[in-house]
Structures are given as structure tokens and as C-alpha cells.
Amino acid sequence: MTNLTIYDYSSAQSFNVVTAKRGEIYFTANRKKLILNLFDGEIHTSNVNDFKPYRKLEFKNHKIAMDADQFSLSESAGGGRRGDRELSAGAILGLVDSVSKLNDLEIKRLDSRINSDFIKDTTHFFPVEKRQQSIKITLYHVEDKIRAARNALTPMLRRIENNHKKMNSYWVEIHKKYSIPFACIVFVLIGAPLGTMTRKGGLGVAAAISLGFFLVYWAFLIGGEKLSDRGLLSPFWGTWTANIVLGILGIVLVRKSAKERVELNFDFLKKFIPKSWRNTSENN
Questions:
Q1: What are the tens digits of pLDDT across the range 154-184?
Q2: Beta strands of the chain (E only): which ranges?
Q3: Residue 240 to residues 87, 168, 224, 233, 258, Cα–Cα distance (Å)
Q4: Edge-to-edge strand ranges of the sheet holding 33-47
Q5: Is the peptide bond before 53 cis (omega within 30 degrees of 0)?
Q6: Within this chain, do residues 204 and 133 fall inside the same structural domain, yes or no?
Q7: Helices vs. strands in the chain: H and E counts, helices first
Q8: Which end of the chain, N or C, is surrounded by fewer C-beta atoms within 10 Å?
Q9: Number of domains the chain is built from
Q10: What integer is the mean pLDDT of 244-260?
Q11: Contact predicate 236/224, CB 8 Å
């Protein structure tokens, strides 16, 4: 890779930018770490609150080691770290609570910074000792101050956005632990009446209908999960919409099959079968 620029938001107190002319990425021998090997670059570090002190490091060679557990398949060992899908709903709720507390602190910092920079006292953008200078120089100083304030607020806003995305993904996993088992009841409600309605269709028709309903459920579940992770849809609606829609359809089918005998006739599909095949099947 060439002309690399890496923005590091892992620390809540500092903002780091790493640049390099070239680099390479590879796994360690045991595939536990992902190594980013950089050459001929710089590391810029500053404090997110006041950007002082500002530090710049130049390097000929710099290595960054990252956890590579999610990039390889390995046998889970007892007592090891479990993923979000392997945790219980109570454990994930604990994660949501911890992220929510961190997010509240970040929002307080953001409000305090906005209040001090733009609401409470903005005279530091136009100091008394510089009022005698030319308007052009004064505007340059004001622009620098505003740019510094904006650069301080941007990482805070990104961390708040990332916290919201993380909480949404946790809530999606919590709802999935209940919505997926509940789908068994939904498929029973759909499958029982359809089984009595498609007796003349044969195994092929039954399999096609089953696959169709499965694809609809899968599309609702995956699409809702992705939209919820991105914050475009509530985690509840993202994971339960498929159950609600198919559940209503199942209830309607159950009522219809209970009140009157309804059969789904697929004889119209025979016209799409070649005549030679139809004659063979009729003779058989």
C-alpha cells in the first residue's frame, strides 16, 4: 500500500493521525495478530480538549499490531472471550448500560465545549489586545480559533455516533435472541394451513412455497438488522417485522382453513411443461 493516512480514535483524550509513504499488512505466524508495517512516515498526536501540546514524530519504520481473532476460524476454548451473539441477554444489557454511561459523559463534554466556545463567552475569538489590528488580521485569528474549536468537536461527535451504533447493534442482538425462537411458532401457523391447501401440488410445490416464505423471512431479518445497525430503523422493528408480517398472514390462513376448506390449485403450471414430459407423466 502507498500514501497511507490512518485516523486513530481509540483514545478518548488524544487524537492521532499516522501517515506513511508505503506499508504492508500481514498476519503473524499464529494468526493471532494483524501487523501493519509502515515505512517513512509521521505520527501527529494532540489533545482533543485544547490541542496542546502538539507532538509530531517522524519514523523510518513503524509497526502497528491489531487483534486478528475475527479474521480467522479457531476452536473456542472454555472460559475464552465470547462474541456478542454468544452472550446472554442479561450480559448484553450490561454492555448497553456501560456504553450508555460512557456516551452520557461524552455528551456532557460536548455540551461543555460548545457552551464555552460558542455560547457562554466568545470574546476569546476577538481579544482586546488585537482589536487595534487590522480587520483582516483579526479575522485570520478568529478563523484559526473557530477551526481549532471545530477540530475539537469533531472527534467528540464521531465517538457519540459510534456509541449509538454500538448500542443499536447490542439491542439488535438482544431482540434476535427472542425473535428467532418465536419464528418457530410463526412458521407453524403458516405451515399447518398451507399443508392442507397444497395437497394436490405434490412435494415440489410444497418445497417451493416453503423456500419462498423462508426467503421472505430471511430478507426481512437481514435487511432489518443492517438498517438497525446503521440507526435507520428501530432495533425492535428491524428484528420483529418479519414475525409480525408472517404471523398475521399465518393467523389469516389458519382462520380460512378452519372456517372453510380451501385448496390451492396449481394445474395452470402444467402449460409451462413440455408436452413430451406431460405425456410421459400421464402414462406413468
A1: 888 888 888 888 888 888 888 888 998 998 9
A2: 2-8, 14-27, 33-47, 55-67
A3: 20, 15, 9, 12, 27
A4: 2-8, 14-27, 33-47, 55-67
A5: yes
A6: no
A7: 5, 4
A8: C
A9: 3
A10: 83
A11: no
